Amino acid sequence: MTTTATLEELGLALVELDDARAEDLTRRLLALKTEPVDILTACEQALASIGEKYAVGEYYIAGLIMAGEIMSRLAALVTPHLAPEAPEAQGRGRVLIGTIEGDIHDLGKNIAGALLSAHGFEVLDLGVDVSVADFVRECRKFKPDIVGLSALLTMCYPALQKTVAGLKTFRRDRDRPVIFISGAQITDELRKKYGADYYARSAVDTVQLCRKILCR
Ligand code: B12
Q1: 209 Cβ partners below 8 Å, 6+ apart?
Q2: Claim to verify: residue 68 and residue 91 sit in the same structural domain
Q3: Using an 8 Å Cβ cutoff, are 194 and 161 in contact?
């Protein structure tokens, strides 16, 4: 077995929905000490290409489902390699995450959650299709410093707007939780329009943002 493997090869295998090859390349890249975050970023880019192929009718829904399943397995291989930080970095703050109502995309959210945990944040993940009421109820119990909302479907943006508004009402008398929104098609313009505090472009951005907010 050859020991070489590149991120480009992995991206290609994923776009071709070749699960065995994508898993093999991922294992090899990890053995070659490739940064886990770089592997996840290559996968994210490949999934964006798959999304484009779906949008132009080159792939059907089955392709999206397969891509999701492969990505989920690759993320399970890679996330244990996200280096946990030194014990003194633990307890950086609490982050509540979830995918908004009507949306079941969770791969990006799960990766962001794993990365935040590895960097010393206490993460509570509410899962997918989370209603405004559930977000607010769990905020009361968990008392997060930050809430991260994931939204991939544009048709669910009204739910995103409602969730941001609901959380802002909940925090009326405090500056916590800080609210940020994320997802492949989210922009800073949308953040401003909906009144969220921050927009996280990627999981790596998310960690940096949370550090900036909580570790001043
Ligand atoms: C895989 C996939 C699926 C899988 C999802 C599996 C899963 N477990 O998540 C399945 C098959 C379920 C699916 C279903 C559908 N999908 Co889909 N899907 C995708 C695809 C190809 C990849 C998404 C993904 O996981 N990317 C990889 C991750 C790692 O990237 P990411 O989500 O952007 O996350 C990163 C950042 O955004 C950020 N982040 C994201 N979330 C969060 C959350 C927090 C808290 C934080 C901190 C950070 C963070 O960090 C991540 C890592 O850097 C996208 C294409 C795309 N461009 O994204 C389409 C896409 C999102 N889907 C789309 C569509 C249309 C659908 C369906 C409606 C199809 C249908 N006809 O049924 C359904 C909707 C189901 C529903 N109700 O939600 C469209 C949406 C178009 C639009 N304008 O809204 C897209 C854009 C494809 C396209 N180009 O048409 N899909």
Answers
A1: 180, 198, 200
A2: no
A3: yes
Enter the pTM of the model: 0.94
How are beta strands 146-150 and 121-125 bridged, if at all?
unpaired
Q: Is the distance from the beta carbon of residue 67 to the nearest atom of ligand 1 less than 6 Å?
A: yes
When computed from its CA atoms, the radius of gyration of the chain, rounded to whole angstroms, is 18
Q: Which residue has the higher pLDDT, 54 or 5?
A: 54
Q: H helices of the chain, where?
A: 7-15, 19-31, 36-55, 61-78, 107-118, 132-142, 157-170, 188-194, 203-214
Residue count (the chain)? 216
Largest CA distance in the chain: 61
Phi–psi pair at 198, nearest 5 degrees: -140, 160
Q: How confident is the model at residue 14 (pLDDT cuts 50, 70, 90)?
A: very high
The residue whose CA has the least distance to atom 23 of ligand 1 is 47
Indicate if ligand 1 lies below 6 Å from the C-beta of 64: yes
Res 70: pLDDT = 97
Q: Which of 30, 61, 81 is the last residue of a domain?
A: 81
Residue 86: DSSP 8-state: P
Strand partners for 130: 100
The verdict on 103 and 55 lying in the same domain is: no
